[in-house]
Amino acid sequence: MTDQSTEQGAQGSPNTPAQGGVDTGQGLDAAVLKIAAVIVIGAIMSILDVTVVSVALPTFAFEFQTSYANVAWTMTGYTLALATVIPLTGWAADRFGTKRLYILALILFVAGSMLCSVAWDITSLIVFRVLQGFGGGMLMPLGMTILTRAAGPERIGRVMAVLGVPMLLGPIAGPILGGWLIDAASWHWIFLINVPIGAVALVAAWVILPKDAPEPSQSFDFVGMLLLSPGLALFLFGVSSIPETGTVMSARVLVSAVVGLVLVAAFVRHALRTEHPLIDLRLFANRHLSVAVIAMSLFAIAFFGAGLIFPSYFLQVRGETTLMAGLLLAPQGLGAMVSMPIAGQLADKIGPGKIVITGMVFVTLGMAVFTQVGSSTSYVVLLGALFVMGLGLGATMMPIMTAALQTLDDASVARGSSLMNIIQQSAGSIGTAVISVVLTNQLLDRAAAGPAIAAQRDPAIAEQIGPNAVQAGLAQAADAFGGTFLVATIIVAFTFVPALLLPRKKFQRADQGDAVARGAMLH
Questions:
Q1: Cβ distance 86 to 105 under 8 Å?
Q2: pLDDT of residue 244
Q3: What is the pLDDT of residue 159?
Q4: d(CA 503, CA 507)
Q5: Fewer Cβ close by (within 10 Å): the C or N end of the chain?
């Protein structure tokens, strides 16, 4: 793409100020702020839902009398649905209009939430979470598209500041809200809370969002979707079945995993031969993007997988309430809130590579503390470690995204951003499955851990096995969590290899500023 065409894109069309309501040199006007309010409501629901449910996983395991590997599918199914629907969203928005699709996404999300609240077993809950994920996956990219069109390209920075609010608040408020709802009411309310919020968002979207103006768009890669989505799902199902079958060689594990890998391989072959694939794998010809994808994959597997079991440790080993478990996780979100804006500014000035390496050091040190966790480890130590990990998280995720996008031309940034988003969601799902498998096996290897964890919830069991047996079992359970955190820490350590290859100096190109900003918005 030429510099001239990029400059024209950056300037926008003559109608851009009219869409935003004021000259683009000014701040966000009342009309744009109203649209932003609608979008933020939807974003808050979608982002909070992931963190709210994370503290409920032990509750699901207890209520539905199932294994932790099965319960983890309530997270894995949701994130896979997100990854599946993200590339579909851009095509559908052009084909049917952003307002209509946004309202449909809200309806799917609210309907999925209502169904989740009445789930009768773990299978029905997983199915309803997938439906909820289809809606949730469209809310953020659609909201970004609507808001950036209204504000104009010259005010993308201000738009990102608005949309950054739910992204920063989610990791802090989600676990606290989830814990409070479970303790004060029941697990059903972590889903029912979305109904009144969603109703307000639906009315506001209908009244405030600008009218649709559908445009012709490129064809959607249905073949790619039919290959990749079930391929990932089958592979993860096979991996998650290992604890239940007790062996990797069982037909349930091998058939699912192998068929899944074959479908993914078929997608790779298809994607390299079609003009508009679901994921543009030809972007891997860009060295910086390839390195960033590897770094993002390893980091997401380790960090999001481990993030699944932090609340479980506080609930199952330390016997905390779900509300307290949520409060104990807040330091991690606070750390990310402190470092994220600083890391973003520094990445632009000195290059993302140095920032990512620094962030990785913080994440590794913080997670290493949890490898030595016991049944009575000081909360001062643990909360400090979570805060340090949060600092690392804020200095890692977005700089990796910047490293991936900054060397792409304007026409490739949208596809690169979609690729990175899908990689992140898929890797997070894989991490969820892998870490849950490791934890389940670690607990199964320690016979006294299960009864001791059950005794935390049921006084009758505690009385039956005695206080000494409970303490010994909790010590074994803590060892199981420590062993699982060790696996996550090792995976994080491997992330240093691609991180060292990321750009370590400021990247300068006149036509790139707006492209990177738009890519970050799509993320």
A1: no
A2: 64
A3: 57
A4: 8
A5: N
Q: What is the CA radius of gyration of the chain?
A: 23
CA distance 492 to 6: 38
Residue at 409: amino acid letter: D
Q: How confident is the model over 360-417, as pLDDT tens digits?
A: 999 999 999 999 999 889 999 999 999 999 999 888 877 887 777 667 665 566 567 6
d(CA 152, CA 120): 47
Q: pLDDT tens digits, residue range 300-340?
A: 888 888 887 888 899 888 888 888 888 898 898 888 888 87
| For range 54-66, the mean pLDDT | 84
In b/e form, how buried is each residue of 229-261, taking b as 16+ CB within 10 angstroms?
bbbbbbbbbbbbbbbeeeeeeeeebeebbebbe
Residue 12, sorted as left (phi over 0), alpha (psi -120 to 50) or beta, turns out to be left
Taken as a whole, the chain contains a residue count of 523
The pLDDT of residue 110: 92
Helix, strand, coil shares, percent, the chain, to 5: 80, 0, 20
For 323, list phi and psi in degrees, rounded to 5.
-65, -45
The answer to whether residues 240 and 72 touch, using CB atoms and an 8 Å cutoff, is yes
How far apart (Å, rounded) are the C-alpha atoms in residues 397 and 356? 8
Dump pLDDT digits (tens) for 272-281. 888 878 777 8
Structure tokens at 495: 């992330």
Q: State which H helix or E strand residue 346 sits in.
A: helix 322-350
Amino acid at 260: G
Instruction: Please state the pTM of the whole predicted model.
Output: 0.74
Interior angle at CA 249, CA 490 and CA 68, nearest 5:
55
User: How many C-alpha atoms does 109 have within 13 Å on its Cβ side?
Assistant: 33
In the structure encoding, which two tokens stand for residue 43, read together? 């974003």
